[in-house]
Amino acid sequence: xxxxxxxxxxxxILQQFRRDHRTLGLLFGAPLVILALLxxxxxxxxxxxxxxxxxxxxxxxGGIVASTLERSKTVSASSMSPGDADGxxxxxDIAGYVLLPSDFxxxxxxxxxxxxxxxxxxxxxxxxxxxxxxxxxxxxxxxGQGGGIQFTPKITFLYGGPSFDTLxxxxxxxxxxxxxxxxxxxxxxxxxxxxxxGTLERLMASPLRRAEIVLGYMLGFTVLALILLVLHVHNxxxxxLIFVLEAxxxxxxxxxxxxxxxxxRTEFQAVQFIPLVIVPxxxxxxxxxxxxxxxxxxxxxxxxxxxxxxxxxxxxxxxxGADLTWSSLQLDLGVVLGFCVLVILAGATTLRRRIA
Amino acid sequence: xxxxxxxxxxxxxxxxxxxxPALDGISVRIRRGEVYGLLGPNGAGKTTLIRSLVGLVAxxxxxxxxxxxxxxxxxxxxxxxxxxxxxxxxxxxxxxxNVRFFGAIHGREDGDREALEFVEMWDRRKSVVSTLxxxxxxxxxxxxxxxxxxxxxxxxxxxxxxxxxxxVQLWDGFRKMAAGGTTIVVSSHVMDEAERCDRLGLIRFxxxxxxxxxxxxxxxxxxxxxxxxxxxxxxxxSS
Lengths: 356, 239
Hints:
A: 2 domains, 5-stranded mixed β-sheet, elongated, B: 9 helices
């Protein structure tokens, strides 16, 4: 095993990525788009957040805002007193309320500043966002009338906070999925390319050992996968532990990609493995649907999928702040590690067989 | 010792792909420092023979010895350069990055400048391979094969798509390398290229039909042109 040869492969992979802007864009853009879409989808479906309007404004503008909000289809708003609103917010009956202060109209007309208070319950980021959107939309009309009016709402959260948003809600699980999925696809395609363009033949005619090729690939993609962590996600746990788990998943994905690329002759065929390998894991690993709500037989299936443990592990660390003393995290890490060993062996075996 | 004389010793090597024999008990010995040309029609087994020299083909029978080492052996591959028929390069890397990469995996970090100058591509070193013409890719591929200054250079149809002027220059370079002790095995269809080899091996149906210097082969066939000699010897063997 030669470090400089492994390093040469790792460097080459990173150089290739630097040139390949589309894949880099995919790597960073795709998770954000999918996450946003997912959050939006899960929030929808008739689940219109209930909110309150507390109108203390003596002037005409408060009334306009209140009636605009009441007509809004994205929230179900109703007027109430300040005490009532606060109580309902704490009991969870409403997801938030907007308070229009008594000097609302004069301020808007003279100081050109719209400063409502928005109080949010905050535990469900999707609902909070709906309310924020509806409220800011209800002020659009006012801003249009006067022109140049500043919209500076004061937002308070009962739980969570402004940084705890939809991304964080699914983020922990999703980071793991994205790493696994993208690294798998990119490795499989990269390996098929090596074969198609004849460079694999050259690598095999060089002093490189198979383990060095696999390791070089692993390091290159793991570096990329870890860069994905800059996607800011709500995290209360140990960053080093997240790195370890992410790196293990990247290693598993690289080797799974190498292994399965042996069964595909073209890049197109490699992509066809996605419905077979990735989609069932996405559905069953508890990323979107909690495993406890699955039918019995599916739960058993979920329990044998490695991604289930990876997702659980990431959630344990990032949301609950688990450390290595937690037995559930030990199990998660153990299963992911075992899966890594399995696919490394599978990848190395098929690589050897194909060359002979 | 025989290993001091020969860079390559192939003894009775046979390999089938399915039922089709690609190599049929072939034996070839190539001396150190000589330029050896493998001549033969498509499908004769030239590429399979070259691949067996770097351990990419495991013979069913026979032995392959390269630079004194029984193949397959990884360590000896650091002293072998292999240029595939197709220009095997990373299209999204620059010419220089490709050459450096192949140098590094053969254990040589420098030498990229010399290799790129050898193929007259130093001024194009920053070009990304996917933007290069076919001839330039072939040249870059050649640079990748000799960046680590191998003792044995295997070239599978190296001058396909290279213009005549550069072909002459490359051959001058090959001769210079051979004079410096590098053994070169080159497969070709092009007869004027074959004329530049020290010795030729005519291959057909996975067998060595004839071997010798250009003059020897011509006189054996009793003709003046190498092309005619090649055709005549091929016919003689198949009848």
